[in-house]
Design a protein that fits this description.
4-stranded antiparallel sheet, Immunoglobulin-like, alpha+beta
């Protein structure tokens, strides 16, 4: 009998863990549903800056990138055209109101934006220093790279999404510039996208 209760307890705890994880699943909306979106040649791009703790919690859990000087911007691309698109040459820039351009920081480099803390040193019984425990770098979280925009191709009728990271704060009158989308078959580049964040 105790074995059955142990199995039941294990099953219930696993079910509870899965139920808790459902709240952490991040699902972007369709591109046209974002306030900041633009459509060119059958391609709609929606962008959303994640600068509030509530927004970031939905995508990054406990990590608040904005407090470390990183502005995550969600980009959703919907291809309603007839051609597949190549996205491996996409360039995204943040432009402030004074036209100062900030290029996106690669997701793999975000963890290095905050230098390591020096471990606390405590004098030992003989007077020699004993290093303390090193604190974990909060920017070294799987969500940063796991939620980054990584799509290389986008078939017709499909969408792709992910975050780009900028070392800046959100300012009134800023704009997201996006270019480098090309038709896979012809190599023809699409018009650039200029999406105001107001």
């Amino acid at each position: 009998m105790p074995f059955i209760f142990k199995r039941l307890a294990l099953f219930l705890s696993i079910s509870a863990a899965f139920a808790a994880d459902k709240d952490l699943i991040f699902r972007p909306l369709p591109a046209a549903s974002y306030e900041h979106h633009q459509t060119n040649a059958g391609v709609t791009i929606g962008v959303e800056p994640y600068h509030t703790p509530e927004q970031q919690k939905t995508a990054f859990g406990k990590l608040d990138l904005y407090q470390f000087g990183v502005l995550p911007v969600l980009v959703v691309i919907q291809n309603d055209g007839s051609q597949a698109l190549r996205l491996d040459g996409v360039k995204v820039e943040y432009s402030g109101p004074a036209r100062n351009h900030v290029e996106a920081t690669p997701a793999a480099e975000v963890r290095y934006l905050r230098g390591p803390d020096r471990p606390p040193v405590v004098p030992g019984p003989t007077g020699s220093p004993i290093p303390g425990k090193l604190k974990k770098n909060p920017l070294n979280a799987w969500e940063v790279e796991g939620r980054a925009f990584t799509a290389k191709m986008l078939p017709a009728g499909q969408s792709a999404s992910g975050f780009f990271y900028f070392q800046t704060g959100l300012q009134r009158g800023s704009t997201i510039y996006l270019n480098g989308l090309t038709e896979a078959s012809s190599g023809k580049e699409l018009f650039y996208f200029e999406i105001p964040l107001e």
